Sequence to fold (270 residues):
Amino acid sequence: MYLINPEGFVDIRVVVTNVTNIYEVVIPIEEPIEEFTLFAYDQDSLPIPVEYNETHVIAYPLNTSRNVIIEATADIIEYVFENVSRLIIKPRLPSKVVLPPSCGLLSFNGSADVKALDSRIELTYSEPGTYAIEFICLTTYVTTSTPTGTTSSSAPTVQYITYVALVGMVALVAILVMRFRGRERIEVFIRGISRELDDRDIKILKSVKDKPRSISELSRVTGLSKSIVSRKVKKLEKFMLVKTKFIGNKLIVELTEEGVRVLNEVGKER
Fold:
């Protein structure tokens, strides 16, 4: 689970069940985590030894452990403009993303089940992949102090009404942004990205236009070295022009809808 907190960090939580008689639990984590925030414990909240090697978290369950819970924090939120932020994740397992309180969902890719739970919006992905989620938040929050001259019993009602008003405001702002700025932002984004691409980037995009390819195939087709191809694929994935997935031991690169649009834009400019 990816829980976005109001401070702009992402709390990652992974639960592994039925680990009895298993002495090592390996969890792939694509997002760079803050190692000092990494903790692991079992169903009884007993600490479990854990380590991190930049691509995997490895936990070592106790003899009495039935479940392993791994928690860490990552600084992976990108600020797009004004109060709009973007989260890009690459889960290898089914995952859930929970937005901060009083935030509106602007856009997301992939097939996600979206629900509104209390003050938060929750997206559930059933498959691994690369997902980009944009959301908008208010910069002010409701105070929890009791107003002067009122009793403590009446304070929750006042706060609840204020809170509902704020949630409604966020929803309205999100709708307005999507309706009046969504198409313009997409067009500006595509034009801007197309100018950031060099000939090698374009070669790779064209090579995966007809079918997904591995790094080795891209190297052979484009005439670029594997190290250059790998570096360029990371750049293109950051721009959400391609997406990657592992099939067996091979990393497969696939063109996204945004990539198709950028290729069309490049064709107009060059």
Notes: Residues 21 and 63 are 7 Å apart (CA to CA). Residues 2-74 form a domain with the Immunoglobulin-like fold (CATH 2.60.40). The longest strand covers residues 34-42. Residues 140-189 have pLDDT under 50 and may be disordered.
